[in-house]
Write a structure and sequence with these properties.
The complex is a heterodimer of chains A (about 90) and B (about 300). Chain A has one domain (about 5-85): Arc Repressor Mutant, subunit A (Orthogonal Bundle), CATH 1.10.10. In chain A, about 35% of the residues lie in helices and about 5% in strands. Chain A is built from four helices and two strands. In chain A, strand 1 and strand 2 form a beta hairpin. The radius of gyration of chain A is 15 Å and the shape is globular. Chain A starts with 6 loop residues before the first strand and ends in a 7-residue tail after the last helix. Chain B is α/β, with parallel strands linked by helices and about 300 residues long. Chain B folds into two domains: about 1-110 and about 210-295, FAD/NAD(P)-binding domain, CATH 3.50.50.60; about 115-205, FAD/NAD(P)-binding domain, CATH 3.50.50.60. Helices cover about 30% and strands about 30% of the residues of chain B. The longest helix of chain B is centred in the last third of the chain and has 15 residues, at about 255-270. Chain B is elongated, with a radius of gyration of 20 Å. Chain B starts with a strand and ends with a helix. The chains are: A mainly alpha (about 90), B alpha/beta (about 300). The interface of A and B includes residues 5, 8, 84 and 86 of A.
Chain lengths: ~90, ~300
């Protein structure tokens, strides 16, 4: 059943109002909105919501060309923990 | 040179087939159970008088299978790293850990359908255009009896006519007109501007598609936001040592001719044709014509 909310990030159940409120607080980058709200941190890793978060920034007057996507980090898809542990890449930092 | 191609859609298959024929050690990786990308479901319904993409898919598979390219299916690249001058990919290959090392990486990850952000858009029965195409064209299932197709582009028009010719009652509605979707256990109605309500059991979101650059982004490929596609494109003139981006991931919803030309140009840069190099084993010009016929 629809609860009447407008979800911008469906994985983490973050509404468009929560994202707009975060922008009004001064979170003017995708990474800042993500840290403030958790939008983009769910199972799809931002595939469906990142562009929509950017559209909210554009609506708030942010220059489109200046909008960077959130930092892309592994894993891109669900991965069993045992399988992730089996892969230990060289860390250079 | 070891080349890994991520994404076995048409662009990835052409690149893998050509590069393997030019002497490269190619691994073509795709998370799906079969190669072909959108060609696996992007065909017209059985009985339609329009061309069907199966023959083009068969040709592409033939070109890849007759080369030395290794094809890994059900293989999810969940991480990509630069290691030295090359790359390391962490792959979940049907549940087994696998590491692919490559000197050159070709990203052919395609596109993602745009979402619809209105109240009720998370109800069962709301789906993207490619989900509806997979149901209709791969499984011969109508996603609903009374459908609303949301969007205004070519894909919205094609899908509206394909669903209608498969026997559904379909209304096409522009995105701006959708106010909300309502229902108890699934879609029951769609509310439009001007106090109009349409009874529906399925809403298909065909608003367009944006490049999928998630893995390219993990390798720090610079991206520029384009509000006209509601997504990011690879930055123009980006310097990407050892990394190439092709297909929908580069061009979005570009036509086949653009995709094929850009793919061949990329192959030329990675491994220029020498006197000894074989050809892809595909009638490329004929293939473009047939692919365009598929896309209407």
């Amino acid at each position: 059943m629809s609860d009447g909310e407008t979800y911008l990030c469906r994985c983490e159940c973050i509404s468009i109002e929560q994202v707009d409120a975060a922008i009004a607080e001064g979170n003017l980058t995708i990474n800042d909105i993500k840290r403030r709200t958790r939008a983009g941190m769910g199972i799809c890793q931002g595939i469906f919501c990142l562009g929509q978060m950017a559209q909210r920034l554009v609506a708030a007057g942010v220059e489109p060309e200046s909008i960077e996507p959130m930092t892309s980090r592994p894993p891109t898809r669900l991965v069993p923990v045992g399988l992730a542990a089996a892969h230990a890449p060289e860390q250079d930092e | 040179m070891n080349v890994a191609v991520i994404g076995a859609g048409p662009a990835g298959m052409i690149a893998a087939g050509m590069l393997a024929r030019r002497g490269q050690s190619v691994t073509l990786i795709d998370e799906q159970t079969g190669s072909g990308g959108h060609l696996r479901y992007d065909r017209y319904p059985v009985g339609s008088d329009r061309h069907d993409s199966d023959s083009w898919l068969t040709e592409l598979r033939g070109a890849v299978d007759s080369s030395n390219a290794v094809v890994l299916l059900s293989a999810i690249v969940w991480a990509a790293f630069r290691v030295g001058d090359g790359f390391e990919l962490a792959v979940n290959h049907a549940g087994a850990e696998r590491t692919i090392v490559a000197d050159h990486l070709v990203v052919a990850t395609g596109t993602t359908d745009l979402a619809l952000i209105v109240p009720g858009a998370t109800l069962p029965g709301v789906m993207t255009s490619r989900a509806a195409r997979i149901l209709l064209n791969r499984h011969d299932v109508l996603p609903g009896q009374r459908l609303v197709v949301v969007g205004a582009g070519v894909e919205a028009e094609r899908l509206t006519s394909d669903l209608a010719s498969a026997g559904a009652e379909v209304s096409a509605v522009a995105t701006e007109k959708i106010e909300s979707i309502a229902g108890s256990r699934g879609v029951e109605s769609v509310h439009l501007t001007g106090d109009r309500t349409v009874t529906a059991d399925c809403v298909v979101v065909a608003r367009g598609e944006a490049p999928d650059l998630q893995l390219a982004g993990m390798l720090e490929a610079p991206r520029t936001y384009d509000s006209s596609v509601e997504g990011w494109r690879l930055a123009v003139g980006a310097d990407l040592p050892g990394l190439s981006v092709i297909g929908g991931a580069l061009l979005g919803a570009a036509g086949p001719a653009h995709v094929v030309k850009a793919t061949i140009d990329t192959v030329e840069r990675i491994a220029p044709a020498g006197p000894e190099s074989g050809e892809i084993g595909l009638d490329i010009t004929g293939a473009i014509i047939r692919w365009e016929a598929v896309q209407g």
